[in-house]
Amino acid sequence: MSRLEEKTIKTEKIFSGKVISLQVEEVELPNGNISKREIIKHPGAVAILALTDENRIVMVEQYRKALERTIIEIPAGKLELNEDPEACAKRELEEETGYGCKEMEWLISFYTSPGFADEIVHLYIARGLEKKENALAPDEDEFVNLMELTLEEAEHYLKEQKIYDAKTAYAVQYLQLQKALNQ
Amino acid sequence: MSRLEEKTIKTEKIFSGKVISLQVEEVELPNGNISKREIIKHPGAVAILALTDENRIVMVEQYRKALERTIIEIPAGKLELNEDPEACAKRELEEETGYGCKEMEWLISFYTSPGFADEIVHLYIARGLEKKENALAPDEDEFVNLMELTLEEAEHYLKEQKIYDAKTAYAVQYLQLQKALNQ
What we know:
Nucleoside Triphosphate Pyrophosphohydrolase; NUDIX hydrolase (chains A, B); NUDIX_hydrolase_CS (chains A, B); EC 3.6.-.- (chains A, B); NUDIX_hydrolase-like_dom_sf (chains A, B); NUDIX_hydrolase_dom (chains A, B)
């Protein structure tokens, strides 16, 4: 046991929903004291930085109930039970945008809110996009506006806080870095 | 009402804890159908990319109960009620690292998990660090190992997935971008 580890004494399951579940864990701290941790369990997610042949970034405008507003994000979605992340990325890209892709490459995975949630996002970059004729349909409770932005347009939306979430901010900065490295 | 908006019909409060609260909202979708949204309310947080005079990045190794492991992160912490984010960033930097700073500049704010949570992180960059003699103490349930990493070391830990969260990945990439732009 590392010096920082917190040992679980008791787990109280509070809620189990269709997306997340919540439990409160009583833990023993490294100094022997007792504390509580509120923890959200999430199935994990994928996000896709999809670039058209004209180097436009495929984005979706979507209402986010947690924020009570629409924001512009790269396509993303939750992993289904035992689903391979790359397969999930291809599925979500097709469902949300109608695009298939010839190339899909893993970029990075990160936890979004390690202080209270185990959600991980696996970020992929997709190239060689082609519209599918009979594309998979979005989830029945999912409504999005499709957009295809230049990097400059994405930077503008980021400044205006219409692009406003961690995975999309990371993806835009990734493209800024690639551009700077190639100049 | 925009075409994408989801109107709340009913809110069921499930849990209210010391960090997060959970509610389930029954919503009317843009097509008139009814669905449910599971929503976590969070007070918001700050994170600090703090650079020493030798350009080392101040990081903290911390056990994250949600992940059941330690990860290496930039210093961060929750906003207190009505707390100004910049004041919070200075407080958290001092509590977690013992450092005060001469310069604190806002870089970006982003939502971490817009699909289910309203948590926002305000990211600052701090320079002109100086150790405080009687620094504020960390929260009583907070145990961290202080580290000061070169960019190359941070890139190494990122590859090894010891740095593994969105805000820290964003901060490391920010430094990579600044380096590329200045070359």
